[in-house]
Amino acid sequence: MEPLEITGRIKERFPDEVLDVVEFREQLSVAIKKERIVEICRWLHDETDLRFDYLKDICGVDYLGKKPVRFEVVYTLYSMRHQHMLRLKATVSEDEAYIDTVVPVWIGANWHERECYDMYGIRFTGHPDLSRVLMPEDWEGHPLRKDYPEGGPEREWPGFQEVLDKAKKFKEFSWQG
Amino acid sequence: MAGIEKSLQTKELTVSMGPQHPSTHGVLRLVLELDGETVVKCTPHVGYLHRGVEKLAEGMTYLQALPLSDRLDYISSMSNNVGYCLAVERLFGIEAPDRAKFIRTIVCEMTRISSHIIWVATHALDLGAMTVFLYSFREREWLLDLFEMLCGARLTVSYPRIGGVRNDVSQEFIDSLYKFTDEFPKRIEEYETLIDKNRIWLGRTKGIGVISAEEAINWGLSGPVLRGSGVDYDIRKRFPYDAYDKVDFDVPLGKNGDVYDRYRCRMEELRQSIRIIRQCIERLPRGPVMTPDAPKFTLPPKERVLADMESLIHHFVLITKGPMAAPEGEIYVATEVPKGELGFYIVSDGTGKPYRMRVRAPSFVHVSLLPRLCEGGLVADVVANIGTIDIVLGECDR
Q: How far apart are CA B363 and CA B396, in angstroms?
């Protein structure tokens, strides 16, 4: 299906949800409200002539100071049967940094959402196991936010000292007793 | 008897496998809960190699971020470079010249071969067949020597550039590579005679880690892991980039979606890669290896900088000011790397640096599949399952 037809179908089915449609270098991005994200995804997945059955990626983007709503959660979808692509962008504000999980639609969303939570602090309601995936569990802050310092936080991660102490203790150990 | 049974107590055992374990292929940690020999629960822990590549890229110009992509999947760095360059080229709306496209296709397929033979070597070693390991490293050495001849580096190459490749190939390189394509099919047969009919190998791979086609799509798998389940999805065919639309090759598909089928897929891919390389060498067009727009994006060769005023100015401007500003917009470009689909999602705000660079790494998705493959199976098959998804943790953790 052509990009224009896809947008037409989405606008026809969810007229109040679509915020913006942009086409850049033959790639289509549709910005939507976050409230009915699961319903929209389910519909995109099940509808016979759309059939977006393959979730390529989910990631967050932080538009601090650039856009009125701070975060966007970006879903890159693909259809194995029809071979068309779509980028869905759900806007998420800083005060209400949560969105419904799409794991029931695509099970592969699980770790992508965990990473998005880890890096941006966006909570995915209904997620089976929403915990940090790349950073340590007791890490403070969300590294990919634009206001997070590139050189790392001022306060050292407490786990680091623990590791050093442990290494020192192991060094003292001797096989001879 | 009843008394004995009452006094015997069984409890589930929790085993921490990794982060330092020879068959986790890097620093992956699995926490396994075992009931006897059966895995009840498997929890992967990743992040030990997290270097914040995505965050680092935000502070770099498009030119500077190229070496970051080497360090993702460090055993197939050429393909990552090509993927990154294609994404940036698409964003800027430029294209590499034909000769550069063919050279890129050649090096991508060389990388695929070297990555797949490392995979078959370590996977077989994990499952107890040591000989293949020794044989396949012989061929890998040949390929790495060729990389060294081409660009001076063996592992983290950074050879492709935005708008082309760094330098042209030499005749010596072409000759040696052509000889390799003559020899290598015989070597593939050698590996296959070692393991393909080995009863232990068959017993440990057939019917293990089965995943159906629908499920594989729903999980978002890619590469040989997806094709092993019989899904015909190869980005080289569906969205041809570089010279892939100018060469003939088949996409090998599995049927049962088990460890054995994925192994067969990768072995066939080795043969197809040889086919692609041969065609590319035979049809290699003449011409420049860098697009004429290059001065705006890529550093001029060092020899020219030292001899030619114009190049010196370009070099100076590129280093001090960064490349030309990118148009505002966002782009997702995927390429087929040996592990699966590597996607770069770049958001540009109209400056010379990416506002956001997201790396969609195949290994990250594949690691998340591990609980699905391992739970309910035997503890000995965990090793087979880790091997079959072909992960590199540098790419998973980024």
A: 5
